[in-house]
């Protein structure tokens, strides 16, 4: 339904990674590489936060400052239509989440690589990649699971339920 949004969702992300990988082969100017990568990451952050998240999966997040000067984070998910029909395609949803999760993981790998190979100048660029793409990932995870719930309490709840299922399983009771 939204092929252009799907294209740009992946284009800026993948382009930043490709430029990072090939930059030293193509040019000797660190500044040109850094500016190009940060521009691509910034375009990706804006496009994912403001366009592709809304179109592809119906999620959005933003920061709102009230009259008192307090900052409030708002996380929203599109409500399901009354007919029960899906508002976004399954393929677009997979593309969105695959790109949203995979690329920050790649930047984290780059961060460890730059750190352990003592490429300090590249570490700043890689940290920008981790921060910008990680912020979008965090925002959309909060949108998906609900804005009111704490992610750590959800994980604890899930593990607690799994533990109770294990304890209640018939095979375990026979041993006791």
UniProtKB/TrEMBL annotation:
InterPro entries: TVP23-like (IPR008564). The keyword Oxidoreductase does not apply. GO terms for cellular component: Golgi membrane. The keyword Membrane applies. It is found in: Membrane. Pfam families: DUF846. The chain crosses the membrane at residues 26-47, 95-116, 122-141. It is a multi-pass membrane protein. GO terms for biological process: protein secretion; vesicle-mediated transport. It comes from the Eukaryota. Keywords: Membrane, Transmembrane, Transmembrane helix. Belongs to the TVP23 family. This is Golgi apparatus membrane protein TVP23 homolog. It comes from Tyrannus savana (Fork-tailed flycatcher). The gene is Tvp23b.
């Amino acid at each position: 339904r939204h092929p252009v949004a799907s294209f740009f969702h992946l284009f800026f992300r993948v382009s930043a990674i490709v430029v990072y990988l090939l930059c030293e082969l193509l040019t000797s100017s660190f500044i040109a590489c850094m500016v190009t990568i940060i521009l691509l990451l910034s375009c990706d952050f804006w496009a994912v936060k403001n366009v592709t998240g809304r179109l592809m999966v119906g999620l959005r997040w933003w920061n709102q400052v009230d009259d008192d000067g307090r900052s409030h984070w708002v996380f929203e998910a599109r409500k399901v239509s009354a007919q029960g029909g899906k508002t976004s395609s399954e393929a677009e949803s997979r593309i969105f989440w695959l790109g949203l999760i995979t690329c920050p993981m790649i930047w984290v790998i780059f961060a460890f690589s730059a750190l352990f190979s003592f490429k300090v100048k590249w570490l700043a660029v890689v940290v920008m990649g981790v921060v910008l793409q990680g912020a979008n990932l965090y925002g959309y995870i909060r949108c998906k699971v609900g804005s009111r719930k704490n992610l750590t309490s959800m994980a604890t709840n899930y593990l607690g339920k799994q533990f109770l299922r294990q304890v209640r399983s018939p095979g375990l009771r026979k041993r006791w």
